[in-house]
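Fresh eyes needed here. I'd like your take on this protein's tokenised backbone:
***
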Amino acid sequence: MEVILKQDVKGLGYKDDKVEVRNGYGRNFLIPKGIAILATESAKKMHAETLKQKAYKEDKLRKEAAANVEKLAGLTIKVGAKAGESGKIFGSVTNIQIAEALQKAGYNIERKNIELGEETIKQVGAYTAKVRLFKEVSATVNFEVVAE
């Protein structure tokens, strides 16, 4: 029996894959639970159209991300933090503050897509962060921590 998966199934396949399964497994488990649909001719046509539209949308998002990589490469943002006279910050700078600073600069990037690396930022100075804009598209953002 051939089915089209509606979600990832460990050991079987990923979402939108057409897979061959045993009749009982498909009829008694996958289809009733809504994990898969039977791969009829009409379902295959709809599946092909859905994949085509998804590929178009992903290509558009990938191009936008590539354009933003160049803009972010030349950008240096300033992150304000309370610091003592020696330049040591009270607390540390996290990806939340960097996401807020990028928001003010006009880039809507979620904090979970910002990686600061191994080091914790506890001093005033210049640093870099890696920003993931799309699945395999990422940029390096320069930011400067200044005392408020």
